Prior knowledge:
The structure holds two protein chains of two kinds.
Chain A: H1 2-25, H2 32-40, H3 54-62, H4 75-86, E1 104-108, H5 118-122, E2 128-129, E3 137-138, E4 158-162, H6 175-192
Antiparallel strand pairs in A: 1-4, 2-3
Helix pairs in contact in A: 2-3
Chain B: E1 26-27, E2 34-37, E3 47-48, E4 55-56, E5 61-64, E6 73-74, E7 79-88, E8 96-104, H1 123-132, H2 145-148, E9 158-163, H3 172-179, H4 181-195, E10 199-205, H5 209-221, E11 227-232, H6 241-249, E12 264-268, H7 269-281, E13 287-294, E14 300-305, H8 310-317, E15 325-328, E16 335-336, E17 350-354, H9 373-377, H10 384-392, H11 396-401, H12 412-416, H13 423-502
Parallel strand pairs in B: 1-14, 9-10, 9-12, 10-11, 13-17
Antiparallel strand pairs in B: 2-8, 3-5, 4-7, 5-6, 7-8, 13-14, 15-16, 15-17
Amino acid sequence: MLTALLVMSLIALLLGSVLGFSALKFKVEGNPLVDKIDAILPQTQCGQCSFPGCKPYATAIAAGEADINRCPPGGEEGIHKLAELLGREFVPFGEDTAAPKPKSVAIIDESTCIGCTLCIQACPVDAISGAAKQMHTIIEAECTGCELCVAPCPVDCITMVIIQENISTWKFQSPEFSAASASRIITSMSQTT
Amino acid sequence: MRTLYHFNGGVHPPTNKSQSTQSPIAQAGVPSRLIVPLHQHAGNSAKPTVQVGDRVLKGQLFGMPEGSVSSAVHAPTSGTVAAIDMQVVAHPSGLPDLCVSLIPDGMDEWIARASTDYLTTPPDELRQLLRLAGVVGLGGAVFPSDLKLRPGKHKINTLVLNGAECEPYITCDDMLMRERADEIVRGAEMMRHMLDAHEVLIGIEDNKPEAISAMQKAVDAGPFSKMAVIAVPTIYPGGGAKQLIRVLTGIEVAAGIRSIDLGVQCFNVATAYSAHRAIEHGEPLISRIITVTGNVQQAQNFEVLIGTPVNALVALAGAKADTNGYIMGGPMMGVPLPSDQVAVTKATNCIIASSPVLFPPPLPALPCIRCTRCAEVCPAELQPQDLYWYARAKNFGKAQEFNLFDCIECGACSYVCPSNIPLVQYYRFAKSEIWANEREKEAANLARERHEFHLARIERDKQDKADKLAQKEKAALAAKTAAAGTEANAIDALRAQVREIAHPEANLPKE
């Protein structure tokens, strides 16, 4: 009886210490779910979700404090991906979120710029170069199109320009489109005759 | 007799080649205006080196290669640069790209040309020469040849010269081999020398007996011991690089592996010809042979200056009245041109005038019945019916798992599909969507990295400021105490002085 108790408590102690050790040794730094959500978010860092950046929004989603339909730059595709990752239903954009816009880039009218550095401070990805009382310019390749620099500009010299498709970004259309439109034409023709 | 191997599948579409092989290669001449795109090769666009209004000579540099994967672009004739602007180019998108427009002066005046001895010049210099001469693969991929001529980690055993020309209608390589075999063979010998390859195998489909005999004669005439002309069976797409390598050597180039890692490199015959022109004659790649065929009066091959507008070229062959468009390339892999004003590029091997009789509009696509005839003919041994399924459902991850990127877009699957499904278009759609997603992902990663750095920098600045403030305060305190100390000292000194004045005897030495 005593031996059995002793053996059982010894085993419990051993397993407990193994578990305790591994909990310390293999501790996962940060929340892996946050990183997974953050990987889906478009990293515009625009704050349109009412959080100060993509990572804080990802953290809020992971904690269940925010809905998944608050990211306009991610588009409906982004909501679908988040819904799939989190095993939730798709939710359309809410009333209070801005409508998705085509991808754009900020352009500074350099002749109007007074060199106040306010836009440089506002840019979340350091994509504006310039110094006090010197002309500023935007590094287009690094601009996420977040529009955060537009409002602070005291002389309104920043405009958002929609990125046009060029040869290297052009995409083949799915033949589905042409097939669908063709069948629509055929049905409309058969209806008229 | 050499043992030949087989690749999976393949089809036998009507070849339609004899129309354009009746007469020899003709010179297309100099049109009234040339439009030379600066992006005619795989990789980065060339950087313009001329300005509007410049007088340029034939062969003068128009654009310098930019970055490691790039090539040069040259003036096709002498004249004046009229514009450097965005023009519609020979691309399925119909979008404009940066082009140099040249008004020829009719003198056709060359730059100074020098011949290079390939045997005494180091291979690195030869590669640089080819890069600056704008020599790229003329089989269709327009990949810079200098990069393919760099031997890898492994010893190159075989150099395959691709003269198969399997696609219907196209005969430019056939005619080039018939008429200029000796220059092709000498170019191949230069390439063999640069790669230090053991042997050269020239693969030509057996429906080109004239080309085979001309090439055989050229090989026999020269001192090329390790060079063989081999007739390969006529089957589409036997001229695909991987397929020809398979047929000639039995080596199967697996997914994600380049043939050079298996000791085989493959070049088109026209590429060997232009490499020879560049090294032996100092001539950059400014013209190529193009087949003009289809709905024309007299189908023929022309030697055409790069930048010649398609309408000027087709006028030489005489397009018939019911022509309703032009295809660049062959009927299997070619793309419809957005306009007849676009210029021919280094990638243009054939222009087909199409008509409703020649190429009737495709029948409406019916549902896939999973008959797997596409899988039977697929030369890359893929499962086209599954790829179609995933591409259509936009399940791109799954399409990649099914090796979408091994698809060479040969069109054999679409050719045999009983449901008339435009399969290749689905694959092209899926590929470009995947590339776009990757670009977006890269941009997002860059933005994340920069944002994190931004936050870290703000934090660091704040810390620095706080540190500085603390230091300043500390310094001020120290200065204060120091100042207080010196004040006390000064008072002491003054007191001593006063004492001295008051009691001068106190300090005198005692007597």
